[in-house]
């Protein structure tokens, strides 16, 4: 089940008020458009009069002049009508696009600000489907609802008045037909909304399944899993088709019943009106005009009723978009000045959502301001989790994390994350050039600073060997880099950020010993050059963290030892064992041992 889904009542008032909230900024544009569209509708209300005048006045007159005048007025009238129709159509389309584009931007910026935990609960394909597919599905409703609806209601009003004034007895037929039409529409409202919602969910699921497979295409291929991926997608595809067919049955039945009732209305008017012609109380021209008007009444009435279909589909999409817009963004404090001082984990317990065992279990840890600390511990001991709490991707369940004595939750997130640069275990590259990828840390950085960061990260040489150097495109459609090259780009990016706290989470694990040594040297230089740089290093090879000011050893989310390399060896505890294990193994890392400096 999706993290954002909720039991949304069918056709509740809340989505309507949400829709109104979205349209409110455009109210004057809606008024203007409605006036334009109503004027066009009013013009078409006049067209049956042409038929009446032609039948009852022009033809009986037998005069060429009357024929010519009638022809000229007729031609001019439809030119005006077409121009107004074009303007109304284009402007209402432009209006819909502005509203939808605003909603899309609101949804996207809310998605970016959701807490990290949300992204673990709802698959990314389904989340992007809310922003793209569901928002697109609002188009039909807004286009029809906010623009054409006004014109149609206006037409219904005008034509009803004309019908009543032409022959009120015949017009009474509508008092029977229209409530029946409204009853049918109301009956189908609930089922249509529910099936539309199910369809939107299916689109999200198809998106999720396909994005996941594409994102992991090499795994899919190497495990020859094309067929099982096909089957996974086929299940969603079939569910989507079935749901659509079910919905079509309801839409077809509703539209059929409405059309049937409308045609029966015409039949009743023909019979009653025909009888009046026989009695001599109505001319054939009047009856013809009345029937044409009746058709003109039915068209907007049927459109309004069919709009119910679009409305329910739009509302179902709006429910999904609203769940995203209403989801609480990351919580943050309002302190914009990040104090200097030690970063302290004070009795921190943290459990990932749904996990039984805590990843951090009463952890006490102090990273001294301006010093280099290392984290060591076996796989799963909680090292990466420490870095995630430092950047507030997650918050402690108990205890607190403070910087310079201030709880991280009191700080503005932007301010906090600006002072911390993290090089993660698996660096991510974006579509864009090498320079843009390094410059991601600071898009305003001049080329000189980007090149300097690349030099410090020992990336310069391989960048120069790329076809277009710093301008070589990377990412999905660009050049693919090796794991070690990616790490060097990520290190350059972190260096460019010029942060006060640098976190290297196994940042050199994909490098060979020689490259690692060069980067270690560069980082050593960086630490020396940047006064007061606090760093936390999680490294694969214990040899790379020996020089750290302090080494902390984690086990099962707790700190079990702390000290310098020499002190910990002398202690003869967990660190000494890990060190011995690694020393006796290959000089390259192994045995599932993970360390930090
Ligand atoms: N997103 C997550 N959701 C649920 N549990 C998680 C998540 N990330 C990590 N864990 C669990 O939390 C515990 C600590 O994981 P963490 O990644 O911090 O360990 P680590 O010491 O960095 O390990 P490694 O050296 O293998 O990277 C592990 O038991 C892990 O399974």
TrEMBL record:
Q: Where is the ABC transporter domain?
A: 343-581
Q: Which UniProt keywords apply?
A: ATP-binding, Membrane, Nucleotide-binding, Transmembrane, Transmembrane helix
Pfam families in the cross-refs: ABC_membrane (PF00664), ABC_tran (PF00005)
Where is the protein found, in the record's own terms? Cell membrane
Task: Please list the GO terms describing molecular function.
Answer: ATP binding
What protein name does the entry list?
A: ABC transporter ATP-binding protein
> What membrane topology was assigned to this protein in its record?
Multi-pass membrane protein
Major localization class: membrane
């Amino acid at each position: 089940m999706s993290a954002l889904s909720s039991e949304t009542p069918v056709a509740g008032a809340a989505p309507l008020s949400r829709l109104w909230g979205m349209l409110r900024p455009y109210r004057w544009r809606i008024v203007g458009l409605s006036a334009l569209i109503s004027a066009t509708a009013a013009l078409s209300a006049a067209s049956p009069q042409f038929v009446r005048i032609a039948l009852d006045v022009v033809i009986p007159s037998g005069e060429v002049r009357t024929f010519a005048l009638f022809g000229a007025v007729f031609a001019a009238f439809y030119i005006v009508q077409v121009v107004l129709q074009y303007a109304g159509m284009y402007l209402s389309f432009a209006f819909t696009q502005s509203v939808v584009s605003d909603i899309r931007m609101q949804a996207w910026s809310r998605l970016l600000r959701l807490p990290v935990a949300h992204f673990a609960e709802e698959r990314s394909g389904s989340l992007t489907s809310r922003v793209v597919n569901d928002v697109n599905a609002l188009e039909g409703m807004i286009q029809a609802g906010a623009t054409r609806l006004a014109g149609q209601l206006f037409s219904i009003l005008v034509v009803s008045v004309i019908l009543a004034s032409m022959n009120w007895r015949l017009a009474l037929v509508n008092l029977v037909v229209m409530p029946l039409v409204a009853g049918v529409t109301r009956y189908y409202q609930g089922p249509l909304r529910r099936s539309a919602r199910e369809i939107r969910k299916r689109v999200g699921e198809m998106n999720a399944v396909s994005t996941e497979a594409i994102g992991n295409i090499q795994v899919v291929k190497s495990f020859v899993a094309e067929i099982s991926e096909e089957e996974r997608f086929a299940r969603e595809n079939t569910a989507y088709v079935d749901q659509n067919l079910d919905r079509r049955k309801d839409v077809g039945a509703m539209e059929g019943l409405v059309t049937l009732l409308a045609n029966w209305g015409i039949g009743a008017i023909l019979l009653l009106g025909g009888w009046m012609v026989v009695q001599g109380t109505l001319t054939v021209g009047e009856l013809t005009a009345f029937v044409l008007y009746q058709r003109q009444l039915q068209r907007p009435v049927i459109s309004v009723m069919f709009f119910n279909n679009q409305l329910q589909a739009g509302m179902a999409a709006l429910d999904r978009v609203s769940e995203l817009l209403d989801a609480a963004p990351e919580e943050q404090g309002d302190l914009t000045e990040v104090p200097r001082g030690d970063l302290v984990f004070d009795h921190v317990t943290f459990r990932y959502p749904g996990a039984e065992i805590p990843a951090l279990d009463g952890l006490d840890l102090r990273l001294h301001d301006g010093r280099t600390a290392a984290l060591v511990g076996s796989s799963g001991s909680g090292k990466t989790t420490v870095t995630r709490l430092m950047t507030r991707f997650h918050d402690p369940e108990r205890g607190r994390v403070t910087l310079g004595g201030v709880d991280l939750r009191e700080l503005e997130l932007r301010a906090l994350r600006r002072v911390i640069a993290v090089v993660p275990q698996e660096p991510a590259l974006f579509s864009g050039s090498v320079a843009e990828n390094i410059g991601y840390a600071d898009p305003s950085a001049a080329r000189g600073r980007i090149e300097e960061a690349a030099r410090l990260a020992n990336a310069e040489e391989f960048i120069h060997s790329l076809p277009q150097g710093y301008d070589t495109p990377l990412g999905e459609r660009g050049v693919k880099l090796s794991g070690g090259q990616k790490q060097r780009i990520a290190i350059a990016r972190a260096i460019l950020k010029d942060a006060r706290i640098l976190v290297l989470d196994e940042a050199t694990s994909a490098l060979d010993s020689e490259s690692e040594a060069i980067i270690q040297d560069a980082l050593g230089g960086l630490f020396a050059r940047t006064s007061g740089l606090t760093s936390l290093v999680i490294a694969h090879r214990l040899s790379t963290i020996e020089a750290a000011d302090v080494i902390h050893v984690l086990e099962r989310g707790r700190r079990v030892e702390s000290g310098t390399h020499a002190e910990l060896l002398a202690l003869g505890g967990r660190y000494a064992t890990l060190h011995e294990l690694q020393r006796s193994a290959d000089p390259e890392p192994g045995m599932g041992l993970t360390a930090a400096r």
